[in-house]
Design brief:
It contains 15 helices and 16 strands. With 424 residues, the chain is of the alpha+beta class. It has an eight-stranded mixed sheet with strand order 1-5-6-11-10-9-7-8, with helices on both faces. It binds zinc ion (2 copies).
Length: 424
């Protein structure tokens, strides 16, 4: 084979697209019910947007971005995540001027140079929302409820919501020092990445995936105990809302996000059906991000859910069957003279709102009937020498196997009638 798709990418074939569409349509419908509106941003942005918003020292920025210089000498990056572009668009287009909370959703590919493994791709796809303009914990509850509702609507069970608060620029520095104090005696035993984190971003030590680091940091101080009054009130209110909405969760002090613009709520949705890479998606509050990107201080919260991961779980749970796409009508043309009238018939049926198909490979009648079966057609119209001579078409009901002649002029209305549910 001469060409192969790039490593870490997927072709989503017609057998799989109905499932993808089901996932995306479910998400769109729920977003509509929750009052979120779609936003589409470019596939690429100035590199600086991501270095700024995600931080130079993150793995994504330092090792995983698809960055290149364009012909104009600009440094460009294929978006590795969805939030920064949405916030950039919010600021640039002054969506704040519309007043109220901007409730936005997106469906987008993201690009990361990752080591390909189950559930991780170099082009992956995400569903996400961003709610910008309020720091009310009820909005946190709404965003989390939407994410959980989405999975429930898809039939995905066996998942859990993991919750934490990462504090704010007032209380986090205090916690950071407590954590450093705790880790100081064994910092040289941590992995290289964590030793760097110890200096630059100690909170990130807490979500290190290495067993050794996890063990050493198991008894790290709990950030919840270091929260300031405002952050604690917010966290308590959110928990009360989730309880009232009957959304179960577990609090995990090891769930963190590293940067100062991430504030208060952090959450992740995990499924044991995903194995070790068990996060389906996650999100949190980012009250400092709009300002970081050049807008006025504006609070916000959002999440991103992986489509590929949702699909892995759907398949794992045996929920991946999407309804097979079938055609309403198959037109069987016998002989070259029948091709043109068949084509006209096909066009008339399609313009009347039906799906219709014919054979383009000069199959025999038997071959065409097999094709009609394979396509799942409810009605087959046959056009041969005899029909042409009489100005009729043979209409065959593929379920009852009944067939009759129908005048050409009357075919479309008769097919419509035959397709009606009472004839099914
Ligand atoms: Zn605080
Ligand atoms: Zn580590």
């Amino acid at each position: 084979m001469r060409y192969q798709r790039p490593r870490g990418t997927n072709d989503i074939l017609p057998d799989d697209t109905p499932l993808w569409n089901r996932v995306e349509e479910t998400f769109r419908t729920l977003c509509k019910h929750y009052g979120y509106h779609e936003i589409r941003t470019p596939i690429f942005e100035d590199t600086d947007l991501f270095t700024r918003s995600m931080g130079e020292h993150t793995d994504v920025v330092s090792k995983e971005m698809y960055t290149f210089t364009d012909r104009g000498g600009r440094l460009i990056t294929l978006k590795p995540e969805g939030t920064a572009p949405v916030v950039r668009a919010y600021v640039e287009n002054n969506l704040a001027a519309q007043g109220g909370v901007s409730k936005l959703y997106y469906i987008t590919p993201i690009f990361r140079y990752e080591r390909p493994q189950a559930g991780r791709y170099r082009q992956a796809h995400q569903l996400g929302v961003e709610a910008i303009g309020s720091q009310h914990p009820a909005l946190d509850a709404e965003v989390i409820a939407l994410a959980m509702h989405f999975y429930r609507e898809m039939g995905i069970t066996r998942l859990s919501l993991v919750l934490n608060s990462v504090g704010c620029p007032v209380c986090r520095p205090v916690y950071r020092e407590r954590l450093r104090e705790f880790a100081k005696p064994f910092v040289h035993e941590l992995c290289d990445a964590c030793q760097t984190r110890f200096d630059l971003n100690p909170l990130r030590m807490l979500d290190c995936k290495r067993e050794r680091c996890r063990t050493l940091l198991h008894d790290a101080p709990d950030i919840i105990e270091s929260l300031c009054e405002e952050c604690r009130t917010h966290f308590d209110a959110l928990r009360a809302y989730l309880d009232a909405l009957q959304i179960p969760y577990v609090v995990d002090k090891h769930l963190v996000r590293g940067f100062d613009y991430y504030t208060k709520t952090a959450f992740e949705i995990v499924s044991d059906a995903l194995g070790a890479q068990n996060a389906l998606g996650g999100g949190g509050r980012y009250d400092g991000l709009v300002e970081e990107i050049g807008g006025p201080p504006t609070p916000g919260i959002g999440f991103a859910l992986g489509i590929e991961r949702a699909i892995i779980v759907l398949k794992e749970l045996g929920l991946a069957q999407a309804k097979r796409e079938t055609v309403d009508v198959f037109v069987a043309a016998l002989g070259e003279d029948a091709t043109l009238p068949a084509l006209q018939l096909l066009q008339a049926l399609r313009e009347a709102g039906m799906s219709a198909e014919m054979d383009y490979q000069r199959r025999s009648l038997k071959g065409q009937m097999k094709l009609a079966d394979r396509l799942g057609s409810r009605i087959t119209l046959m056009l041969g020498e005899e029909e042409l001579a009489q100005g009729v078409v043979t209409l065959r009901d593929m379920v009852t196997k009944e067939q009759r002649f129908v005048p050409v002029d009357d075919v479309v209305p008769q097919v419509i009638r035959a397709l009606q549910p009472e004839h099914a």
